[in-house]
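User: Please fill in residues for this 204-position structure.
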């Protein structure tokens, strides 16, 4: 069967409550409205290049990695987590998965500023630039496949938790690469990467 559905069902507040909720934050996205991610804030150039270079357009086991967080500022362990996950998925997991790209997604200012206050908060635009610089500093082992997605930090409705962010990125990528451009034959998966402290707080 060549068909493989990836679209989300409508997500309710009760179904997609975040680990950090409250009246000040939106922890869900109405998938029937507009997309958080788009070609302007989430570049797919590296993903497509790696797919073509490795001849993986018809493979069923393609994925991208996503990590979210304040990145206030980013540090080497954030990038090492992505490298470790890529190595595991491609070399140890059975069946192996092809990691075509990785995305660093800095969290919206409304959350970071509220958590850290004026003295420690770095605005999203600067946090994104620091992430870009850190990626380039690591050389081609990282810069050949990792990019910064600004979709989450630029989202007009404020903070959204990691679950809906992951789903929205998945839907954007598959809409672009499978449905529209026909670059991939099968939908790719988005694998969420986080540290142990975040993992221990996850409710799903």
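Assistant: Residues filled in for all 204 positions:
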């Amino acid at each position: 069967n060549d068909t493989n559905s990836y679209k989300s069902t409508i997500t309710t507040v009760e179904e997609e409550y975040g680990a950090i909720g409250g009246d000040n934050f939106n922890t869900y996205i109405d998938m029937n409205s507009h997309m958080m991610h788009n070609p302007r804030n989430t570049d797919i150039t590296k993903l497509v290049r790696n797919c073509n270079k490795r001849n993986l357009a018809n493979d069923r086991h393609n994925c991208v990695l996503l990590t979210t967080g304040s990145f206030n500022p980013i540090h080497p362990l954030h990038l090492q987590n992505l490298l470790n996950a890529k190595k595991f998925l491609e070399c140890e997991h059975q069946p192996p998965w092809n990691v075509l790209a990785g995305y660093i997604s800095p969290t919206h200012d409304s959350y970071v500023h509220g958590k850290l206050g004026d003295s420690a908060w770095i605005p999203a635009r600067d946090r994104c630039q620091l992430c870009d610089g850190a990626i380039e500093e690591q050389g081609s082992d990282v810069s050949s496949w990792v990019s910064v997605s600004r979709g989450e930090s630029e989202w007009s409705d404020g903070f959204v938790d990691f679950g809906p962010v992951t789903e929205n990125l998945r839907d954007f990528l598959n809409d672009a690469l499978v449905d529209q451009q026909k670059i991939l034959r099968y939908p790719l998966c988005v694998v969420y990467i986080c540290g142990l402290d975040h993992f221990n707080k996850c409710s799903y």
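For context: The two ends are 30 Å apart (CA to CA).
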